[in-house]
Specification:
The chain starts with 7 loop residues before the first strand and ends with a helix. The protein is globular and about 55 Å long. It is α+β, with helices and mostly antiparallel strands. The longest helix has 28 residues. The chain contains 7 helices and 16 strands. Helices cover about 25% and strands about 25% of the residues. It has an 8-stranded mixed beta sheet with strand order 3-4-12-9-14-7-6-5. It has a 4-stranded antiparallel beta sheet with strand order 8-13-10-11, with no helix packed on it. The chain has one domain: Jelly Rolls (Sandwich), CATH 2.60.120.
């Protein structure tokens, strides 16, 4: 597409290359029959079709809570001496990317019905854990809204209850950094796709996240103090039989920035039933089956070992 020509796709300006913004103000998981819900659902559907991701304005999580989390809790956590990567790749407690200045801490498998204030890494104080508990409770409803709108847009609202019960939630704290001697922009996390269902990225003050669209153009996210970046992962791509696209994304720090923190809230399949199998409603003559049913955690092991060099690991692993 010629960048000198003004073009708009579904209300999305393709010259400025910004992710579309969707406002969830006033909506909750119990108000999905309202007209406002239908309007937002349509915008999300268009955003995923055109640009593979979107920014969401969500006022239930206050700027004060975000500032406490990203300005105090997360920096204090990374100031502690932490261990090496363990458990499953990407889903381990600690995660590094060899050759890149990036470190993450993951709390997997949040069980909200039994959740207590004292969950979280031992390095966190009681008040830090209270802040984290506040954040995760509100992020859970936020995530459920996104999942419900996506399923409704695909005509799969009857699958919502069983689908949402099959999910676990995880939260990842990410620390991106570079040496002060680096004078230019530097990629601190290389292009990759998330393997999960949905990732909601919370970043504050320091930009850096970029998303690749279907035209191989990189879009710089521009979050505000009350917005979040929503990205589809490979599990949802396979479960929707390719109706959803899992975009590449990366983190690049400009020459003025030496450190960036982010918090990523995600959904993953349960540990006891992790088979990804597209609903029959999404398979027909126009949309033949693209991916064979597979076990998510087996795919994770492949994806971050021998599949690490594949251009499209999902297709290689289970493509029809």
């Amino acid at each position: 597409m010629n960048s000198t020509i003004m073009a708009t796709l579904g209300g999305v300006d393709t010259i400025n290359l910004e992710l579309p913004k969707v406002d969830l103000s006033g909506l909750s998981i119990t108000s999905f029959n309202e007209k406002a819900w239908a309007i937002v659902r349509l915008k999300i559907s268009q955003a995923l079709e055109i640009l593979c991701g979107f920014e969401v304005i969500y006022n239930e999580i206050s700027p004060e809570l975000r500032n406490e989390l990203l300005g105090v809790v997360v920096p204090e956590l990374f100031a502690n001496k932490l261990g090496d990567s363990e458990q499953l790749p990407y889903h381990g407690k600690f995660f590094k990317k060899s050759g890149f200045p990036f470190f993450a801490i993951l709390i997997l498998y949040l069980q909200f019905k039994n959740m207590q204030i004292l969950f979280g890494p031992k390095e966190m104080t009681f008040f830090d854990k209270l802040t984290l508990l506040n954040f995760t409770k509100q992020m859970r409803e936020f995530m459920q809204i996104i999942h419900r709108m996506i399923l409704e847009s695909l005509g799969l609202e009857d699958h919502y209850e069983s689908h949402i019960k099959s999910l676990l939630y995880s939260i990842r704290f990410a620390n991106y950094y570079k040496d002060v001697s680096d004078k230019g922009n530097i990629i601190v996390l290389p292009p990759h796709k998330d393997p999960n269902y949905i990732s909601i990225v919370c970043q504050n003050n320091v930009d850096g996240l970029e998303v690749e669209n279907t035209c191989d153009e990189w879009i710089k996210t521009k979050p505000s103090t009350n917005s979040f970046t929503v990205l589809v992962g490979e599990a949802f791509k396979a479960w929707t039989n390719g109706r959803l696209h899992a975009p590449n994304h990366r983190v690049k720090l400009s020459k003025e920035i030496t450190k960036r923190y982010a918090v990523v809230f995600s959904t993953v399949p349960s540990l006891t039933n992790d088979i990804i199998d597209a609903p029959k409603e999404l398979i027909d003559e126009q949309h033949p089956l693209l991916f064979k049913p597979f076990k998510y955690y087996d795919y994770i092991k492949y994806r971050f070992t021998e599949g690490d060099k594949d251009e499209d690991a999902l297709k290689v692993y289970c493509g029809v």
